[in-house]
Fold:
Amino acid sequence: MEELEQGLLAQPWGWLQLDENSLMAKAYITKQGYALLVSDLQEVWHEHVDASVVSQRAKELNKRLIAPPEAFLCHLDDLLRPLLKDIVCPGKATFSCDRMAETLILRVRSELSDLPFYWNFHCVLASPSLVSQHLIRPLMGISLALQCQVRDLAELLRMKDLEIQDYQESGATLSRDRLKTEPFEENSFLEQFTVEKLPEACSVGDGRPFVANLQNLYLAVSRQEIQARRRHQDTGDPPASSASPQGTDHHPLNQQEEPVSSAPSPPLPEKEPPGTLGPVQRPQLSKVKRRKLRGLFS
Structure:
């Protein structure tokens, strides 16, 4: 079960568009079970089940289908993956959700082996530690990494201004006036950004901008957190926080680059290449044939 939780942490957030709701979600599915995390930015819900629970629930909801739990997990993986990757698959499945006091039930209806297939994800409110692990700590790490990136870019602009000044003092001139720029002033830039751009830039909305624009950086920060935990387990030393301000002063993090650890990085949970929710096998399904009833005088 620990593999599922670590695998879930290494997954990006996706977007689940329902008729009545818009939800952020992430899932990790293997042949041993699945872990699912769902949020509407007001609450966070979680479900973590093994193969035995999958088998029992499948029997209750799909009495005409007989298959090992791996087959149902494979089908759920096929249904969730395109949705969380924002790939439209018309007519393949319909999703709906019901909310109760501390529970969210995500209902799925599709077809499996030409028979109706039903599934209910029974998600309960996530614990504070789980919310911290999947949202608070990664978002703090992202914020600090972006702050470090801004500082590096500002320094680069100052160096570019000095380079341009040197060219000008050597007699170089622009061939096109429209390319002329003013020397970069960091304080003026930040003040202008705060007044003009900040309201739009920090508009969280329903969470879709975060899902669409920051998942590469989210994954890099999450992997750093996983590596720190594994080093802690191997050595017994306190884990270094990936959201440490000291860590961002000297190690800039580019959104397209993964952070590099000074220690050898243990392998992440085994999973498929990017774009999948997790490794699952695809066993064959068998239908339950209805027996023809015989009358007394047949």
